[in-house]
Amino acid sequence: MSRGWTILLAGAGAMLILLLAFCLQLYRLAIQRNRKWFMAADPNLPQVDGELVEAVQIWFRSQPFEKVTVRSDDGLTLHAHYLDCEDPGGRAVLLAHGYSGRGEDMACFAQFYHEHGFRVLMPDNRGHGHSDGRYIGFGWHDRKDYLKWIDYLVKRIGDRAQIVLHGVSMGGGAVLMASGEPLPEQVTCVVSDCVYSSVKEILKYQLKRMFRLPAFPLLPLTSLICKWKAGYFFGEASAVRQLRQATKPVLLIHGGSDTFVPTAMAHEIYEAIPGPKEKWIVPGAQHATSFLVDPQGYKDTVMAFIAKSAGPLRGRSPSPDAS
Hints:
The protein is 44% helix and 15% strand. By secondary structure, the chain is α/β, with parallel strands linked by helices. Helix 5 packs across helix 6 (170-179). The longest helix is centred in the first third of the chain and has 28 residues, at 3-30. The chain is globular. Residues 313-323 have low confidence and may be disordered.
């Protein structure tokens, strides 16, 4: 082999090693369990008012939440907070949190539902909070975990259970992906707020938005690393594809000014839903802020959708300050 070819091949090999090392770092940044420092400084993620956060935390700490666990199909111990209620009916909500969060981040939704007579279950997704796991599933592996939590609620409440799946951001992806799996009749509907169409598409969008980097060849190589280390390809984790098998009514909510998960994805997802569906785009709302921008509209829209999907809500009326 000539000296020129040797130099060329050595250079190509070095470039490939550098590329793989960079993609491994991308995997560690986005998928591996660790502190997501880049999220705190992202201007596309608006900061929530501190007084509002404190008020919700006070409510959360004042409630008799029970810590419960289930075991995932691959042997992980998954943790959640469960809040019972005095309502004689079987209404319950399974709340799914967002990327790098934990179950109690959904406390504002828990308060809203509980005041309307719902039992509340708030899991920590795998790789988050107190749950086991060394990677983030982006909703794909979580969909099977949520089947375990649904089974937990059915066993705890009984056949009379009426379960709503409600997720925000990555949690919205988890409940939509779960909706494509066989679900028991006790699951009445799905509410998904500011969700991405697929992991592949949102990572492609974020690579360009945050780092000004092309999807190819970075995304396919990082996907291979994800398959090796976490057990799934990015292309597998598609809410759009899962929804083609969905049978439960779906309500999509998205902020009209969302630049973290572009609003256009909501329209794509909506078109993929084969059954009963509704879509509410909240004007002026950024990512995961629709509830804060229009709390009364949010509550009214969700409750009306649940009533249409499951029939009139049975049990006690909400407290006067629930609205």
